[in-house]
């Protein structure tokens, strides 16, 4: 890593920080800025091991007048967001790898060369990329803490940094960019960073579409252009025109699992919004093409299509423009509840693609290849990826909701009680009805409101072209009947549209039985005829980790994938695994390249689906340059896993993992499920109770409003522990497992062998190391000191911190390192730079939580807002929060 690159990052942090300081001074005076600097200095010296400074920081924060608490939290929150901008800008400009580990993530060109050296022909490389199907599924999980209006300002700040850096020969440009930067930072400071209302599912979908409009619309053709150039150098040919190695789907407006705000009406509205926005974006492309394609030379096919005109390309494009304008008008009318009385609209991808392809072929046929492969090729690539809907919308619903419909139906028809039947009876009934030609559901059936909503969702499916929709995911799936039920409802209500149906296995028990369930499904002849020998299965990372602890869950996920690959191979069925990952380690997060290459061999066979959620969408796809690099990372990883798969684990490694997972699971459950003090401790020491007031997403923080931690969703569960820097869900249990093995003969040797030779285990340890470096037990201890009174709860906290210290010692022993992140200095630097700005927010949050509890939740509006800003700031500082 060159000295200049470090300097570039530091310079930009300084430029943004100085500008923020001037803005705050203009608003609140220099004396207030001096207070901020005093707090930061205490925090910085405290981080250098000065315990007196740590105490002085806490005392200083506690003595702040109430009027200062909100602006102080806002100042540190804003700085952390600006530091993120500087780091993201650095990554985009210098194409830094995700984990800042030199050589850990190859660029595509290097990988193509390596694949060719391994015996893959140039033709094989082109075919593999052409047939690759990586689908990135944008989800609205509530971890994006920053308002959209601020994200737009931050994007503009990034553009200013680019302008300043490139103005060396034009100082007046640099001066203008600096002035604009000051204006934007002032705008951000004077904008409320906390939403006043929870976003609706439609708001979330609009945010997802905005990412496509502002970033991916440009990044997608750029990615294909780079790929084409690589393939021309390597294989002498381009990627086929209709190939789309990386595509996009969405859950925003389709994920109704535990979210009563996502209704059939919402899903319909989001689908229409996608059509409207797609039409609007394509109109801009078509207008540009109509302006540029003024040529008169054309092949006979295009002349026949255009008629006797001087400019045949413009004629074809003019007709397309008319239909696209009609499409936009139709979608707008539908959204507004009006009747549409205009001309014919574009309903399918092919209706847009075919005329453009005709223009492309004509230009090539008459020797105008350079023009064909310009803006027209970019638009063809967009159509291949985005279709006419921007994304495919997935739908997700819990298995019990489908079973409820069938239960009500069988009761109404006098057939018995579906829920009382065993699995064999259920399958027999469902298969008979799937084969039957008569309708099962009475035309005027009076069912419950819950069942009516499920049926209305299938009616939306029936009204759509299949290319607008992705996969139907069944959460909490446990038996083949859960899948057959959805197939039956789709047949009864969904008309001619049949979507892929993916069972989601997410608890430890469900993961252990996933292979058996799919094996039973694929053995049913009636089912095989429905799926065209293609099966999708979703692996849940969040709930399995919450259920069993991270180490046991990771091994269960790995074994489930192995089992599913073997089952589908045996049945001759193509398997696509759908990974439900989050941003944090506790939810399967981490660098995409390492994560994909740590999967079992054969599980990534040219196809992969993976969720991208919350704040990670912005970090990976929020700007064109970052999105371009993210797509390259995914393409690299899937290509490598397909052509150069990782080695299978040795039998003795598997035995080691079985034992490690068993010990870790027992230790985790012993605390989280069996210690009567654990739930009271969690509620007392974390901001879990206040978290529900932070208007992050449209979904409730709990599946049920009654009950304990088991009802809490995995995201707020992890978010709450992250806020106090204990990060407990991602490590609890691992320490006992590693410590026990290290005490045994040969333990260290075999763990190091697995770390060095098995990507699954090596990646797990890398993620654990990063997690331990971000955690801070001293901060967790301060929350406990301020918020916990019960001696038994304090004793539990002390035990948890001791377990953490033991785990850190064990990890360093396995890695043979003196300190964490020795080999990834940029991550270490990123954490160290942020800590003096996060520490005051922790101190203020603990103080505000105590004041809130003392007042029974009736603190002033300013203090309540300050508490929410501390949550937003800590989340921004630690980045992968949910």
TrEMBL record:
PROSITE patterns: PEPCASE_1, PEPCASE_2
Protein family per UniProt: Belongs to the PEPCase type 1 family.
Organism: Vreelandella glaciei
Cofactor(s) for this UniProt protein: Mg(2+)
GO cellular component term, pick one: cytosol
GO biological process annotation, one example: tricarboxylic acid cycle
Gene designation per UniProt: ppc
Enzyme nomenclature, EC number: 4.1.1.31
Source domain of life: Bacteria
Subunit structure, as described in the record: Homotetramer.
Name of the protein in question: Phosphoenolpyruvate carboxylase
Chain's role: Forms oxaloacetate, a four-carbon dicarboxylic acid source for the tricarboxylic acid cycle.
Keywords associated with the record: Carbon dioxide fixation, Lyase, Magnesium, Pyruvate
Pfam families membership: PEPcase (PF00311)
MF GO annotations: magnesium ion binding; phosphoenolpyruvate carboxylase activity
HAMAP family registered for this protein in UniProt: PEPcase_type1
């Amino acid at each position: 890593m060159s000295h200049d690159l470090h300097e570039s990052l530091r310079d930009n942090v300084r430029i943004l920080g100085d500008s923020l300081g001037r803005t705050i001074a203009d608003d609140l005076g220099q004396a207030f800025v001096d207070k901020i600097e005093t707090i930061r200095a205490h925090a910085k010296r405290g981080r250098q091991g000065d315990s007196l400074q740590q105490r002085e920081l806490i005392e200083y924060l506690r003595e702040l007048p109430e009027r200062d608490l909100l602006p102080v939290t806002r100042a540190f929150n804003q700085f952390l967001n600006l530091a993120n901008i500087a780091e993201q800008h650095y990554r985009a400009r210098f194409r830094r790898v995700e984990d800042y580990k030199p050589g850990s993530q190859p660029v595509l060109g290097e990988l193509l060369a390596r694949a060719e050296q391994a015996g893959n022909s140039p033709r094989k490389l082109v075919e593999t990329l052409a047939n690759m199907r990586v689908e990135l599924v944008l989800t609205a999980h509530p971890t994006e803490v920053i308002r959209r209006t601020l994200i737009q300002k931050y994007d503009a700040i990034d553009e200013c940094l680019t302008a300043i850096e490139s103005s060396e020969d034009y100082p007046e440009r640099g001066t203008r960019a600096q002035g604009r930067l000051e204006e934007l930072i002032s705008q951000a400071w004077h904008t409320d960073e906390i939403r006043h209302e929870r976003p609706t599912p439609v708001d979330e979908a609009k945010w997802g579409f905005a990412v496509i409009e502002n970033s991916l619309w440009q990044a997608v053709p750029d990615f294909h252009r780079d790929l084409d150039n690589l393939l021309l150098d390597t294989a002498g040919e381009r990627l086929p025109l209709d190939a789309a190695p990386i595509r996009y789907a969405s859950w925003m407006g389709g994920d109704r699992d535990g979210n009563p705000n996502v209704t059939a009406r919402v899903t319909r509205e989001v689908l229409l919004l996608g059509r409207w926005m797609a039409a609007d974006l394509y109109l801009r492309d078509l207008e540009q093409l109509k302006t540029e394609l003024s040529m008169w030379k054309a092949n006979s096919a295009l002349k026949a299509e255009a008629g006797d005109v001087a400019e045949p390309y413009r004629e074809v494009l003019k007709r397309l423009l008319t239909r696209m304008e009609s499409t936009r008008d139709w979608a707008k009318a539908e959204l507004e509840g009006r009747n549409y009385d205009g001309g014919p609209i574009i309903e399918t991808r092919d209706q847009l693609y075919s005329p453009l392809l005709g223009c492309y072929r004509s230009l090539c046929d008459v020797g105008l290849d350079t023009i064909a492969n310009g803006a027209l090729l970019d638009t063809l690539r967009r159509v291949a990826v985005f279709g006419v809907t921007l994304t495919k919308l997935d739908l997700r619903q819990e298995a019990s909701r489908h079973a409820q419909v069938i239960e009500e139906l069988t009761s109404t028809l006098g057939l018995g009680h579906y829920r009382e039947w065993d699995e064999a009876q259920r399958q027999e009934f469902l298969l008979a009805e799937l084969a039957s030609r008569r309708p099962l559901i009475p035309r005027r059936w009076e069912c419950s409101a819950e069942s009516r909503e499920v049926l209305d969702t299938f009616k939306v499916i029936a009204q759509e072209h299949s290319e607008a929709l992705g996969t139907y995911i069944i959460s909490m799936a446990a038996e083949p009947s859960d899948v057959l039920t959805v197939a039956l409802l789709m047949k009864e209500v969904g008309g001619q549209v049949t979507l892929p149906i993916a069972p989601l296995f997410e608890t430890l028990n469900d993961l252990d039985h996933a292979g058996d369930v799919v094996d039973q499904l694929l053995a049913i002849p009636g089912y095989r005829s429905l799926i065209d020998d293609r099966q999708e299965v979703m692996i849940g990372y969040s709930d399995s980790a919450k259920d069993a602890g991270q180490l046991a869950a990771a091994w269960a996920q790995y074994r489930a994938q192995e089992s599913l690959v073997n089952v589908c191979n045996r049945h001759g069925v193509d398997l696509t695994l759908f990974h439900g990952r989050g941003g944090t380690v506790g939810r399967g997060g981490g660098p995409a390249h390492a994560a994909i290459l740590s999967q079992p061999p054969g599980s990534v066979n040219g196809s992969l689906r993976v969720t991208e959620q919350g704040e990670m969408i912005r970090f990976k796809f929020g700007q064109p340059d970052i999105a371009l690099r993210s797509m390259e990372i995914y393409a690299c990883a899937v290509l490598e896993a397909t052509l150069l798969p990782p080695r299978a684990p040795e039998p003795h490694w598997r035995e080691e993992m079985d034992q490690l997972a068993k010990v870790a699971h027992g230790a985790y459950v012993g605390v989280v499920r069996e210690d009567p003090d654990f739930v009271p401790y969690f509620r007392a020491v974390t901001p879990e109770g206040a978290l529900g007031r932070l208007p992050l997403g449209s979904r409730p923080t709990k599946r049920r409003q009654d009950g304990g931690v088991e009802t809490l969703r995995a995201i707020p569960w992890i978010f709450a522990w992250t806020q106090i820097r204990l990060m407990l869900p991602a490590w609890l249990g691992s320490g006992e497992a590693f410590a026990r093995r290290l005490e045994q003969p040969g333990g260290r040797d075999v763990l190091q062998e697995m770390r060095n030779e098995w990507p699954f285990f090596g990646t797990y340890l890398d993620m654990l190391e990063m997690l331990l470096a971000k955690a801070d037990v001293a901060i967790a201890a301060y929350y406990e000191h301020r918020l916990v009174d019960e001696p038994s709860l304090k004793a539990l906290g002390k035990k948890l911190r001791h377990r953490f210290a033991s785990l850190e010692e064990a990890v360093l022993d396995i890695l043979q390192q003196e300190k964490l992140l020795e080999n990834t200095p940029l991550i270490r630097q990123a954490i160290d730079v942020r800590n003096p700005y996060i520490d005051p927010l922790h101190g203020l949050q603990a103080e505000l939580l105590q004041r809130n509890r003392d007042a029974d939740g009736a603190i002033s509006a300013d203090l309540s807002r300050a508490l929410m800003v501390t949550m937003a700031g800590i989340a921004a500082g630690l980045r992968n929060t949910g």
